[in-house]
């Protein structure tokens, strides 16, 4: 029963779409379940191969992940690439699922609107605008559903994105998830872990200082609770 229930929770949050293949039917044909662990062995995408795993930590899985491989623009003449999104939900799955359903589409739409032959690749500006557009769309949803579903206002999600396009790797992060690159060091024949993103987390002193500077009239903006720094004593993530 655990595996069957787990698969029902995971499948709507797992949206791989590799070139020439739509891998998301019910999930069972493309992944394997072992208790609270779901994983998918290597598959092909535009920039190479991938594998992915999900471990359920709560009664309800609040996280989502997706891999899209193919056009990165709404235009047929747009660039080809690979998009990976990891969305660490909290306070419920609604925000992570919303990002999973809208962020990549927003990137394609925004890129398509400003596409030119001189700037055919993806850009940091496109990714930033897609983040902001997705956030505004979710806030609009919260406002519209406030009276009937007020609990949605407490849901949120970290958002970690990697895009490979035209030989470049773009990393975007909002929250305290982390991207780590494994790079082979030929001289020692070992894989070296290289951190590619920085967390936004109240455990970091410079983040606490920034929050205090932004909220000088709130002495409780960061609170040490059970030896862990938290925003308002509730959550560690700060953006």
UniProtKB/TrEMBL annotation:
The keyword Magnesium applies. Belongs to the PP2C family. It comes from the Eukaryota. Its cofactor is Mn(2+); Mg(2+). This is protein-serine/threonine phosphatase. The keyword Metal-binding applies. Pfam families: PP2C.
């Amino acid at each position: 029963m655990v595996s069957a229930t787990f698969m029902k929770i995971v499948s709507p949050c797992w949206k791989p779409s590799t070139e020439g293949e739509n891998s998301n039917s019910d999930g069972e044909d493309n992944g394997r379940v072992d208790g609270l662990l779901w994983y998918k062995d290597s598959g092909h995408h535009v920039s190479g191969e991938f594998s992915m795993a999900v471990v359920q930590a709560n009664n309800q899985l609040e996280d989502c992940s997706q891999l899209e491989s193919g056009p990165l623009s709404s235009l047929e003449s747009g660039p080809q690439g690979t998009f990976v999104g990891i969305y660490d939900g909290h306070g419920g799955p609604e925000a992570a699922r919303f990002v999973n359903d809208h962020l990549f589409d927003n990137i394609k739409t925004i890129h398509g609107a400003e596409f030119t032959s001189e700037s055919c690749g993806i850009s940091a500006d496109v990714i930033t605008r897609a983040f902001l557009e997705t956030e505004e769309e979710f806030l609009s949803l919260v406002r519209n559903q406030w009276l009937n579903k007020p609990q949605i206002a407490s849901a949120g999600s970290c958002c970690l994105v990697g895009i490979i396009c035209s030989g470049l790797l773009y990393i975007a992060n909002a929250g305290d998830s982390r991207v780590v690159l494994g790079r082979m060091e030929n001289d020692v024949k070992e894989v070296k872990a290289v951190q590619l993103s920085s967390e936004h987390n109240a455990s970091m002193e410079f983040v606490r200082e920034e929050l205090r500077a932004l909220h000088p009239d709130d002495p409780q903006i960061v609170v040490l609770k059970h030896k862990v720094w938290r925003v308002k004593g509730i959550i560690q993530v700060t953006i």
